[in-house]
Amino acid sequence: MHAGQPRSPCTGVCRIDQATGWCAGCLRTLDEIADWAMLAVPEKRALLRRLADRQREAQ
Question: Can you state the percent helix, strand and coil of the chain, rounding each to 5?
Fold first, then answer.
């Protein structure tokens, strides 16, 4: 990983919830999981912020 690169939010719990379409571990959609490696740093950070919002919504 390069300096400044956000870590992948993957937790190793890879199971898609049918109701939300989100992974039970990281809360990403299948498209977001597939796109992660191709995203620029600002896009990764924006996605991480959305995931934090999803986490709050899921609680």
Answer: 45, 5, 50
57 phi, psi to nearest 5 deg? -65, -35
Task: Say how many residues make up the chain.
Answer: 59
Q: Assess contact for 36 and 42: CB atoms under 8 A.
A: no
Q: Residues 6 or more apart from 32 whose CB is under 8 A from it?
A: 47
- Per-residue tens of pLDDT for the chain, all 59 residues: 566 899 999 999 999 999 999 999 999 999 999 999 999 999 999 999 999 999 998 88
H or E segment at 56?
Answer: helix 41-58
Q: Which two tokens stand for residue 5?
A: 């690169």
pTM: 0.88
